Amino acid sequence: MDFTIRKYRQFLNILLGKGYYFVTFEQYCDFRDRGEALPDRYIIMRHDVEALPENSYAFAQIEYEIGIQSSYYFRVVKASNQPEYIRAIAALGHEIGYHYEDMAICKGEMEHAYAHFQQQLHYFRQFYPVRTICMHGAPTSKWDGRELWKHYNYQSLGVIGEPYFDVDFSDVFYLTDTGRCWDGFNVSVRDKIPTYQDQWTEQGLVYHTTDDLIHALNRGQLPKHIMITTHPQRWTDNIMAWSKELLLQSLKNIVKRLLIVAQK
User: Fold this and answer.
1) Closest CA to 76 of 134, 152, 155
2) Which candidate in 80, 182, 207, 257 could, as Cys together with 75 as Cys, close a disulfide (CB 3.0–4.6 Å)?
3) 184 and 178 in contact (C-beta within 8 Å)?
4) pLDDT(260) > 70
5) If DSSP codes are grouped into helix, strand and coil, which group holds residue 215?
6) pTM, to two decimals
């Protein structure tokens, strides 16, 4: 079974065994801003906490046990924003960031959305000195949260990084479990890197399952610099919850394909 807590632990241990160094996105940005080189092999590990934060806490505990830090991005909605889990994950030494969707929440009203963003950033800073943010794709919304930054500057708010703007994807390979698979860029509305994804596909850097990634690791075929994004609500050892997520995500992928076709 893929997308289980056990499989996630196995994947992390193999990455560590292959010599990858783990950094939070905040640490990646700090290295960049200081002009310092990162280790030869590194993983920027990022988790989008969109629902079921208890699953994210399970991930955070595993990472703490094996000695790595990663970044957890929380939405403001109740399904994600549960203070007890935010505090618990921060207490384990992980980065907390804001998974913003203010344009969707404010129905495209730019000034309102920016004011809402500032309020929520201030809110999450009570748990952690938030310095990085990440857009929530909100695939059913016609508003892209990144449109805010055509009119405003997040650096002016003490934010040093947003992955879709501040990662050098000419150097960093991107993996995300969007769509409950590792090649979900085909059904993703916004969580993708269009220009570079074509190049990675031409190079054969396309993987469907976690075992596909493990096999590539064991053959030494994965790039040395990788950003990995997971959605921990998809990962569980509970067979009933696992089956439910498989069914729901399969239906969501159908809807996403229709949305992508409609946008063309």
Assistant:
1) 134
2) 80
3) yes
4) no
5) helix
6) 0.92
